[in-house]
Amino acid sequence: MLRLLLASASPARTATLTAAEIVHDVQVSDVDEPAVLEAQARAAAEAGAPPLSPADQVLALARSKAEDVAGHLAPAPGERVLVLGCDSMLEADLGAGVEVVGKPGDPETATRRWRAMRGGTGVLHTGHWLVDAGAGRDGGVGVGGVSSAVILFADLSDDEIDAYVATGEPLKVAGGFTVDGIGGPFVAGIEGDFHGVVGVSLPLLRDLLGQHGVSVTELWA
Asked: What CATH fold (topology level) applies to the domain 2-219?
């Protein structure tokens, strides 16, 4: 029996998989994301390597989430469980140079970021890591990749930004925006995979499944 387990609490990710008829279950990881990035940055510094790029950061977080969930699984005899971890970050110029932007967390931060981003562009990176939880120890065998897309933001008025932030949506999502929700009218264009911006790239997932010898059609409802 083949199962796909999504190691993410994101409603947008599970909705994307469901719309594509990809059967899956959800088990959220307990990964401390800031701690993972701090450890990665420390290791890079000790090795004399450059800091992790935004793409490397989201890939590291996706891997940590997938391996965390996979490491707590005990597949039943004859059961094969593939665990998918994902993480997204926006790379944007907020006025003091390019920054990596996660979830704003509070209205003030969301408002400040949107006033800096409006009328401009950013790059949304979504890391994916797919682990075969039944293969070996230490979280199983995994493969990964990153989906990156250029986002063109509409030139919002202050009133539009205030109204959008008041909905609460920007506070809970990477980059402070969605393309599949309330924020859709404020994204003027996308160069890249739409689903990757939502939170999980279906073409990339297909490729990762293929590396595990699995066809996406095997997961269709």
From this structure: Maf protein (3.90.950)
